[in-house]
Amino acid sequence: MEAKIEFIPEGTITSPRGFRAGAASVGLKKEAEHALDLGILSSEAPCVAAALFTTNRIKAAPIVFCQQRLQGGRAAALVVNSGCANAFTGEQGLRDAAEMAGLAAERIGLSPEDVLVASTGVIGEKLPMQLIRPGIEQMVLSTEGGHSLVRAMMTTDTVPKEVAARVDGSGFIIGGVAKGSGMIHPDLATMLCFLTTDAAVDLDFLRSALRKAVDISFNMISVDGDTSTNDMVLIMANGLAGNRPISPDSRQAGIFQQALDRVCIYLAKSIARDGEGASKLIEVTVSGATGVAEAKVAARTIVSSPLVKTAIYGNDPNWGRIVAAAGRSGIEVVESKIDLYIGGVCLVKEGNPLPFDKGSIVELLKKSDVSIGLHLNLGTASATAWGCDLSEEYVVINSQYTT
Amino acid sequence: MEAKIEFIPEGTITSPRGFRAGAASVGLKKEAEHALDLGILSSEAPCVAAALFTTNRIKAAPIVFCQQRLQGGRAAALVVNSGCANAFTGEQGLRDAAEMAGLAAERIGLSPEDVLVASTGVIGEKLPMQLIRPGIEQMVLSTEGGHSLVRAMMTTDTVPKEVAARVDGSGFIIGGVAKGSGMIHPDLATMLCFLTTDAAVDLDFLRSALRKAVDISFNMISVDGDTSTNDMVLIMANGLAGNRPISPDSRQAGIFQQALDRVCIYLAKSIARDGEGASKLIEVTVSGATGVAEAKVAARTIVSSPLVKTAIYGNDPNWGRIVAAAGRSGIEVVESKIDLYIGGVCLVKEGNPLPFDKGSIVELLKKSDVSIGLHLNLGTASATAWGCDLSEEYVVINSQYTT
To answer: B60: which chain A residues are within 8 Å (Cβ-Cβ)?
Structure first.
């Protein structure tokens, strides 16, 4: 069944029923004095909650803290800061994370066990708790507060990333906010994404649905290997829509998954488009692969190749870099079967380079969205990955960060 | 036994007995009109030969050609061009490679089966044979010709990379030339390395010695994933030193391996230092790992991290990026055991950041050689990797290549 999924104008993480949020500026971002840098998200009803965390062996204190706290699959609030990642901070880092959660619980009137913590910023510095304590104590929450919360998470992001979607006839809403990721937003604690829904959802189903949605969205943007110490995707479902809890056998299971996929893909693409120094979004679809895993590997390899990224930045139709990236991705590739498209124009057919009008391809590459289609013609599987171009500005931003 | 290995002043690939080379400018490099772009290397005696090739599934025609030709482990000459990679060129590419070999054989007076071919340059364009044919026919070889051959291989390389080493008392010499690699010299056909020796060497031993030397040299420089379609490391041993052929049980086996290691590491470091847009060499040593494979993975991950590379370019002592790269490399890492050194100065001891004088670390980072030492304190294995910093110049070079 194809669900009618509708994006809500100005939708955000507080669009689902019963969620409130707030943010404050407490001075954690040295380079931006009055920027929002601390926020709280809270649900008026307890939530079923699931999360995915960074695979980095060096895990920030908030990650370790949330992994423990989420074992039971329940939460009701989240406190988040930018400007300091609370990563590589040892025992003190864990104590600081716990204190943040405790203070937020006190402010909202919850049990400390119901509060999660996230941080993003420089690695290896302790949290300035003297700034955070008064900030939490004075925090004001509202149902419009999602728009502030998303700004309090930003580091080198240039635009806030927020969305909410309603499924026609289902009665529930899924909202979300995210901040930058991967190579794109490197050791600023990389990617954070928080999702809310007022749907009632069975915990096991929520965990599986989140995993599936993340696999085709955040796991398909150009993270280039620099996986952060602080990556986290969290979903909280408070059940206030009043539906029967969704489980794998529910009539609504498929619609919920589709809506969650759409929301995650929207946020993932927003992150890719807003990469550090990026001027455009690159969408790579690999089809005709022998399996989905193979198609994913090839699409991700192409979209994160520095050579493909610099060529697209320079509007250079240097397509050899695209097939070379596919070739070294490790999947099966047969030169004589490859078709390659840029912006819908076929440049290679069954391994043979076609003559093309360079000027018109350069014009296609100058657009804000560049699509690459690689048909392997070996099977029936396909996958799409998203990334951004690589400019001098990326180097400038990343060579002048702590100094 | 520690061999006394001596680098020969002005040594090159024609330093071992019986090797001659020559080069010509035939107009293959559109952007550099009179640059050398075609070369021949020849041995007066037949050689035992071994080679390692790119793992890219899209293999250039010269790679496919050499893989077939080297199955017997014998060769006597090599013809190489820059400016065009002869990659993604189908059946015509294979015919062109065979014709190049045939013409070179005719010029030198060898059987065509004894000649190998290598190409480097743009992917997806056919070899301009009308330029190559007269170039080969008029080629003049000499024992000083190694210095010209190495220039004929250059693409965006800024300096030629050549070396020769003599082992005291062994009577033999190993010489070599190389051109740029990996992310560093991306789709200019990436890395080529040719090695010669006048030692007599058993084929199986030569193959194994080359594999070992490459594993700790070329495989440890920052290739960043953009493995080329044309990568190739070749060694030819003509036996004119008159020694008894070296086999694994020979008294000289150890010395030969050490000398080959030294030559390969010298050339690999030269490639890393001359990376596109690079201003310095980065050397990363990971020690205290649970195994050599683990140490290698961590060292390579750190040295190829865009965040580490940009930080070092900006002389930024942002050490959090180094431990984060180690953490996401996939190997075992325990935060509370990590010691970290930059330029010999300890910044982290047993997981605790130490106070340090930022100004003095910035001075260390400004040097042309930057060393990073990461002690995992989990085992006894170690490995070293080499790379270069990432500058705006890299983006400029790679966004303006074919257009």
So the answer is: none
